[in-house]
Structure formats: structure tokens, C-alpha cells
Queue: 3 jobs
Job 1
Amino acid sequence: MKEVKVGLLGCGTVGTGVAKLLIDHKDLISRRVGVHLKLKWVADIDIERDRGIQFEDGVLITDAQRVVADPEIDIVIEMIGGEGVAKDLILKGIENGKHVITANKALLAGQGNALFKAAAEKGVDLAFEAAVGGCMPIIKALRESLVGNHIKSMTGILNGTCNYILTKITDDGSPYDVALAEAQARGYAEANPTLDVEGLDTAHKIAILTALAYGMEINLKDVYIEGISKITPLDIEFAGQFGYRIKLLAISKNKDDSIEARVHPTMIPFDNLLSNVNGTVNAIMLSGDAVGEIMLYGRGAGMMPTASSVISDAVDIARNLLSGTAGRVPSLSYQRDQIRAIPVTPIEKISTHYYFRFSALDRPGVLSKISGVLGNHGISIQSVQQKGRKTNGAVPVVMVTHMAKEADVQKALSEISALEVVGDRPVLIRIEDDKLD
């Protein structure tokens, strides 16, 4: 049986999973593909640590350059991460005619356009199923299964750390700091959780998916990003009273001549399937003009789920090699000469529904003052509640609006913040609910 030789760069958590599947499932993969995926090299700075895998003698090395330079290597799998040495090694592999697989969403979101251009010019594949959604086959769905559709929108929970924290706040009433500490104790959050909790990781993923869905260049810099660190049990409680749960959502909408691409805490109705996606699980809903709505759901991170997606890419490339082809499926779903720069709508220009919470002094006329400012900016209130325990003479006033423009909302909240009868900065959470008018 023909061999396809593989070089693995980085043998941390996911890299170990990749090696384990290539070794433990080699017969299964061979029967399905018709070639043997041979793990020739595994390069890592630590080759002494016990990974629970029995490697053949000499497979583990510390010299990554040797892997990308080896003329026998057909596929390079980059599991190092980051945007420094990983980028250099990927480009060197491409230059040497290697097909490359990566799960490096930060690198692809920030510098992917140049990498995909280099791969296309060299006639090799750059595959990245594991970069978004762990084991969910969202890349393959967009590039292959849904090619007959105009994708209208994508809405997803794409970070398990944030979803776990919000689930803990919702189910247990835990403050954000307590829920984060538990996520860290369980290994779901890093010691420095900024990339996850401030929405950056989710933004990397939706930037990639937006490019695939609409035939545009990857554009991370214009994605609006807001994290979950200011979400409180009180807002989650009020959301429930209005019939909503709060999730960190990646939202992408096709407006024909422009795109919405944003990441922020969002209230969604109880009957929205995403509202019941809890813990560390990821999910994404896509709307296409032919298929309607579909949803993918699964573990978004972890050794074996992510490794499974890496192996999927390796098998696709091996099948291409077996038939003597490359670039059969365009990396970014569209032919390169059809990819264009589509503007991303600034957050100030979007219109949606909003939840506000004000800390208002318990005095007559306060509600009318707040409502007056909102009305002056064309913001119409759909429902309002004024309840809860008084704190320092103030009570929470919560509102849900009709459709309003973000720029108008921000101006109104700035004015309301300056009112003597309002303490603290008002809380704003956007709402995605098709049933609201």
C-alpha cells in the first residue's frame, strides 16, 4: 500500500491526540483511504515527556526545520500555535511543496490571506478544519456541503470557556470571578483567560467563517468584539424574566453589499436551540437560502475532538495525493479570482433590539426622564421593569427596546449616564430575537 508521509510540528495536547490517532487508528484510516498515513517525524522542544504513546525509534526530534525540509514529507501538521515560529514553518513547508494542516485560528485570522495566497501559488493545500469548532465539521460544511446555497447568516457559540462560565452564572448564580476561577480549576480556562473571555478567540473563528461563507478576504480588524467579563447574575436573572438566556455569540450576517461580523454577549429566547447549549460545548446555526436553518453541535476543544478534525484534513489531502491532484476544493471555498473585499458594517451602524439596566434613584419622575432621553434619540421601549432591592437609594430599572440603531443607543446612554438620578454606567446587552418587532 502506498505511503503518505506526515511530519507533526508540536506535540502538546492536540498534537499528542493527532499522533495517537495516526498510530492507533492507522489500519482503520488505511482501509478507508487506500493509503497508509505514516508518521515519520514528530518535532517538539520536549522529547522526553511521556505522552502515553509508543513512538517508533527516532520519530521524536527537536528540529522542526528538518521536518519541513525533508523531501519525503508529503504533509506537515502544524500544532505549535502562535503567530511567530508557526507562521515561518508553515511558509517554509509551503515553499518546499508540502501540504499543510493547521488548527491555528489566530494565525489564520490575522495573516491567513497571505498564507492562502502562498499555498495557491505553490499548488499545495492549506487545510484548517480544526481551527474552528473543534470536532464540528463547519469548514467542510461551508466549503462542500452548502456550496449550492447563498449563506444568509451564521450565529454561533464558538468558545467553550465562555459558555462554561455563563452556564455557571446562569445555573448557580455564581459571580463572574467565581465562575472563572472554577473554569480555571477544571482546566477549561487559561491562567490568563483574556483571549477567551474578552471574545478574541471567538472573533478569530467568525472572521474565518465569514470569509468562507461570503467569498471575501479574511477581515479580523473590522470584527466588533466584546467579552463577558461584565456579565452579572443580576442581568442573567432579568434576562430570564424577559424569556432570554445570555450567550457569547459570534454573529455574521450577509447584507449583500456589506457584512455584519460581531462578537458580544447576546440575549436569545429560551426556544432558540443555542440557548440550551451549555457547558463547554460549541454550536453554530447557519441559514442558507436552499437549506433553511441547520445547526452543528459538538465539543469545541480538547485533545481528541480537535485531533479528529486534523485527521479529517489529512485524509482529504491523502485522497488528493492518491488521485494526483491538489487544490480540488478551494481553501476559502471560492475560487481565488472570485474572492473580494466586502466591507464590514461598523457596530455603530447596526440595528437590533437592546436590553438596558439602569441604577436609578427611587424618586418620582426618574423613569420619565430616562424614557425622555431614549425617545429623543428615536429609541422606543417595548417593555420595562422596575424592581429589586434598593442599594444606596437606587433600584434597578430594566428595559427592552424595539429595533434601534447602535449609534443612537450609545448617544442616549451617554446622556442618561450624566443624569443626577442615575448612578453607574448603564448596562447594555444586545438581543437577537426574530419575534420582536
Job 2
Amino acid sequence: MQIFLILAIPVLLSISTLFMRRQRSFGIVNCAGYLAVLCSGASLFKGIISTGSFRAFLGFIYIDFLSAFFIFVISVVAFAVALYSVGYIRKDVEQGIISEKKARVYYLLFNLFCFSMFMVPAVNNLGMLWVAIEMTTLISAFLVGFYNSKESVEAAWKYIIICSVGIILALLGTILFSYAFSISGLCKSLNWSDIVPVAHILDKDVLKVAFIFILVGYGTKAGLAPMHTWLPDAHSQAVAPISALLSGVLLKTSIYAILRFGMIIIKSMGFAYFAHLMILFGVISLIISSGFILVQKDLKRLLAYSSIEHIGIISIGFGLGAPLAVAGALLHVFNHAVTKSLMFFGAGNIVSVYKKHNMNAVRGVLKAMPFTGILVLLGMFALTGFPPFSIFISEIMIIIAAFTNGSYAIAALLLFFLSVIFGAFIYHFGKMLFGNLPKGMVVSGEPLSGKIAFLFLFLLVCILGIVLPFIKKDLLWIAQRLLQG
């Protein structure tokens, strides 16, 4: 089955790092492995959609539409990151920033990190879901502090401490869900497929408290404000390809966890309780991120705060609850993943050439790095929701749903803060991309693998922006089924 192949390939690639000595050769093997993972993820997703059913294996693996969708998103970004890593890590080795041995450590951690993220949507047991998310934290912390600089080590410790507090709260919430299930006279189980059918008889007061723990706990890992404080430091200090994984898909695995518990809440007590909390944290995230984006000077921190903004938009979309809004939120999960990964690839190239994170010290990127500069310019418009790119479609679906639901204040807030952030991005990137080259700067090229990764993501951003309006009916049907659990 595809799911076992998806889980097995990262493990096998991790083991193979112990035997392959040349990082460049392993980088190519790594790309081939994640191409197979991407094909398997696409096949699994297509199969689940076409049959409209779920797949369960031994009570441990449970794959439905939501699982298959998140697995597909992770596989897309993981393949792009594997491609980009080939040239990026080789350049670090050639410049003496890291050794060949350290490069193999990178690939070992990269594959373990991907395996842990694939585990999150694959498992049925909510306790194992918690374990998988904790695995993502512990493994990715080494990748945040990979360069062993003072700033990166500090960011890694901050990441571990804050996310560990969050994950403890999520554990308490999971225990309370288990308690609500057990006191209802049912046999003890933490399997999601066992709890959802009987959610309507569970103690509603216990579930309310439990979901607050879940939302704050997993919301910390997802980057929802005000629990977001680890995110800008970790994303700015991590290796550039890993920053793409952190922003593109790691945050979404925690959103997935929140949705799994949220579906139990919706089945138990209706939609309002879930909706109010999701919208509240979504709006707070949008407000806080826009303020920091306006005054930001560090390129990678700017993109990190942009991730908080988009997680807020996704949270609002799910909180609105209308099929159009839920479909828009799901699309936004994918659209943000591919677009933000592209932008972190661009930021990685810029920082590698200019040796600076400070945007005030970076000028003339279009002249110094024509390919990267053009893709970053287009990616900037895509990330801020400019038509015809895919993020525009998912954002406009959420805004239209807010208006049609009568949530005019939420729609107005979305429009206002999206406009503010668009203006801030134009200002920040306009200064970096245009202007004269700094003295001594020469035109720089990019590795072929990096260019392929850029073009792969950019084609997805463009094609989805054109195709999505034509498949809206299918998306609304899927969203409706998701709301019904």
C-alpha cells in the first residue's frame, strides 16, 4: 500500500546515510526517493477522493480524505526541499561552512524529520499523534541549531522550551479526551475512529476544557499568536531548506491535529464552540503578524511572521465553517505550503550570496541573481494574494464566505490586514530586488537542482490559480463531508 511506502522510504534513506560517503551522490538518491514518495502521496490522495472512503490498517493507520490531503501536501514540499538541498548543501561543503560528515548528518535529520511529519496524519491513535508531533519538535530542533552559531543554538533551545510547554498542554488535552471517553461507560481507547462515532454521548464540559488545552498546546506548535514567539527565531536560524519545511508543512501538521480534535467537538456540541475559538486565535494572529511585518528588518524573520499571518487566515477559514470557507482553508494549507517554500528557497539564495539577513543591506538582487530575483518577485506577489496566483483564490473564497455568512467584521479585518501586509511586502522586497549592486558584488548563478525546485513550486502556484475556480463544486463537496466528520 502507498502509505507504507511513504513511511518506509524516509526510514530507508536515513539508514542509507550511514553507508554513502559522498553527500552529492546521496542528494541525488534522496531526490529519487522523495519523487517516489510524491507519486505515492498523489496516488493515495486520488484513490481516497475517487472512492470517497477511508482506509484502516490494524487499528494503527487510518487514512481518510483529511489524512491523505495533508500527506500529499507534505510530500510535495519534501520533494522540492530534497531537490533544493542538493545544491545548497554542496555549496556549504565547498565553502567550508560544513564538512562532508556534517552534510550526511543533515540528510539523516532531514529524512527523520520527514518521517515524523508523515506519521502525524497517518496514525489513528490520538496518543500516537501526540508522540509524532513531539518527534517533529525534537528532530527539527537539531536542524534549527545546525550551524552551531550562538544565534542558532539559542533559537533551537527557545524552540524546544516553548514548544515543549505547548506539547505538555496538548498531552493534558489528550488525556481529558480519553477521560471523557472512558467515563461514558465505553472501553478505553484513544483511536480517533472509535471516539468520533460516540462523540455525541461524551461529557461536554470535559470536552470544552480539553479542547482549550488542545488548541493552546498544538496552537503553540502551529504558530498561532500569542503562542508564536519561538517561530521567528527558529525559522530565521534554520538551514534554508529546513525553513521551507518548518513554514511550509510543520505548522500544518499541528493544524491537522487541531482539526482532528475539533471534529470530535463539532460532533459532540455543534459548531459554535469550535468556531469561536478558531476565529479568535486567527484574528489575533493576523493582527500581531501584520504589526511585526511592517517593522521587520530581517528577511527570514519577515517570512516567518508571514507564516503566522497565513496560519491565522487558515484558522479563520475553518472557524467560519461554511463549506466555501472550509474549502478555502484547505486550499490555503496547500497554497501557502508551496508558495512559502519557494520564498524560503529565494531567501536562502539571497543570504548565501549577500552573507546578510538584514534587508536594509541587500540591494540589486535582480541584477546579482537574475533567476532567483525574478522568482522571488513573482513569489512575493503570490504570497500576498495577488491574482492570478493560487493564494488569491483561497483567500477570496474565505472572504466571500465571511460576507455571505454575515460575518462582515471578520471580512473587513481580513481585507484591511491583507492590504497592510501587501503594502509592507512591496516596500521591503522593492528595496532588496531593485537598485544598484553593492561594491564588489558580481552576478551569481544557481545550481540546476535549485532551479528545478523553484520551477516545480512556481508551476504549482500558477497552475492552481488557474485550475481551482473550475473544480469548486468538488471542493465544496469535500469540505461538506469534512464538516460532517
Job 3
Amino acid sequence: MIAITRSRAGINRARDYLELTKPKVVALLVLTAWVGMMLAVPRLPDLTTLMAATLGIGLLSAAAAAINHVVDKRIDAQMARTYSRPVAKGRVSAAEATGFAFSLALVGFVLLYVAVNALTAWLTLASLFGYAVVYTMFLKRATPQNIVIGGLAGAMPPLLGWTAITGEIHSHALLLVMIIFAWTPPHFWALAIHRRDDYAKVNMPMLPVTHGIEFTKSVICLYTVLLFIVCLMPYLVGMSGAIYLVGSAVLNLRFMQYAWKLKFNADASTAMATFKFSIVHLMVLFLLLLVDHYFKVSPIYVS
């Protein structure tokens, strides 16, 4: 009986540490990085480099997420969406979470530096710093444009994937960064509308709190138009073909439809539905880039 109790406690402990890493968020970041790796070369990249880069980027992303739990401990405890997080609830101490985050960051950085290349290692570390320190500690509490400015850190994974394979920064990789950069505000502000009262309670200057829900809805509409235009760029510069163009147009028109409903015909579930669709939008968009890439070039390994 004691052994069973200890086993359950160990499983719960492991779950808490897994939750610190925000695995769903990290999975989306890693997917975009992985697509960046695949698009960097006409054929399949070296598998050893691909696996090392995927793991290293994932570990540093997880470290940034864990630091976010520590920094936001006080406000997380007061918000309905986050009050049960491990650090906010005290199931994992701030010191333990910090040590865990630094361990993940160290292993991830060393792996990228040794097994991939120094450029990717330093860029990924800079992204961690941008999210965990610049955004979480300062911008998030300072300006309603926090997610616009801080969103650059979250938009970096495709560039990290690209540099992992090629060792250089390319304009096509920067286009992928631009897509996520334009996608982030309408994605996050839809959630912020749904959780507006939570953010107001903790005095967090999110756009729906500082400028009102109706203004935020209007800005979301404008950003979905901007996103549509930015998503055309890979096709216009010859980076992608017809498969991506058609799929991207369908996805972005659907996103605009959600934004339109949110602005002019919203019900209690529209903001969260828009937020959830935005996640599907980004996943499918990047998978379309991948399919389009290999439709034009037969996937055979680089010798």
C-alpha cells in the first residue's frame, strides 16, 4: 500500500513537472521549427542534425515555459485559467521550478552548440531570454502592446530550424517568422477577450482591459487581414507553390470569418472558438508549406 501511494505521488510529481513545460505550446513551437528545418533544403536534411535540433529547441522552449510559471506565480494564483498550475498551487516550489528550467536550458543549449551549430544555440537562447525575461517580466506588465512586441520571441522557431540545417539566416526563414509574428496578436487577443475579467483582476494591461473589448475585436479583424497579406509572401517570392497558396487562402478566409463574427455577431463562445481555430490555422498552414515543398521536390536523403 505504501509502495502504491509512493508510486502515485511520483506520477503526480512527474505530471507537475511536465505541466511546467507547457507541452502543447512547446509542441506547436517545435512543429514550426521542424518545418523550418525541412524547408531549408530541397531534400530531406541530415536526420542526426534534425533530431538534435528538434530536441535542443524543444528543451529551451520548455525552459522558457517553466520560467514563466515562476515569474507569474502570483498572478497565476488569482486567475481562473491558471490558478491550478504547479507553482501557483505550491505543488512545485519556485526554487525547484527555477532549477528545473535552468537544467533544461543548459542541456538544450549545450546540445545545440555541440551537435548543431553555435548560431542556432545562441539564437535559441536569445529567444528564451526574449520570452522569459523581456516579455514575461517587463512587457507583459508594462504595455497593452506586450504580445505584439514580445511575440517576436515566440515567432523565432522557424528561423531556428532553418539555421540549424544551413548555419545561416535566410530571407525565406524570416518570412516564416513574419507569419507567426502577424498571427500572434489575433490569436492571443481572442483569448484575452474571453479572459478579460481575469486580466483586469490582476491589473494586467492586456488590450481588452486597457482599450475595451470592442476596440480589441476591431484590431483582431485588422490583424487577420494583415496576416492574409503576409501569408501570401511565400508564394509571391517563389518559396512555395499552388498547394500552399490555395490552402493558405482558405485558412485565412476562415480566420477572417471568425474575426468578423467575433466583431459583429459574437456569443459567449465566439472568442474561445476563435482562439482554438487560430491554433489549428497555424498548424495546418505550416503543414501545407511542408506538403507544398515536397510536392515539388522528391524527398530523398542528402548524401
